[in-house]
Amino acid sequence: MTQSLPPLEELIACHECDLLMRHPRVGLEQKACCPRCGFELVTHRSHMRRRSLALVLTALILFVPANFLPIISLNLLGQNAVDTVWSGVLGLYNAGMEGIALVVLLCSMLVPLMKLLCQLFVLLAMPYAELRPAACYWYRVYHHMREWGMLEVYLFGILVSAVKLLDMAELHLGVGLGCFVALMLTQVWLEVTMSPHQVWDALSEKEDGHART
Amino acid sequence: MRALDAGIIVCSECHKLEYLRQGEVQHCTRCGARLHARRPDSIARTWALLVTAAILYIPANVLPIMTVNFLGKGAPSTIMAGVLELVHAGMVPIALVVFVASILVPTFKLVGIALLLYSVQRHQPMSARQRILMYRFIEWIGRWSMLDIFVIAILVALVNFGNLASIEPNLGAAAFSCVVILTMLAAVTFDPRLIWDNTFGEEEIEREEGEPVSGDNDTGRESEASAPPSNY
Question: Which strands, in side-by-side order, build the sheet including A79-83?
Answer without folding.
Answer: A79-83, A72-76, A170-173
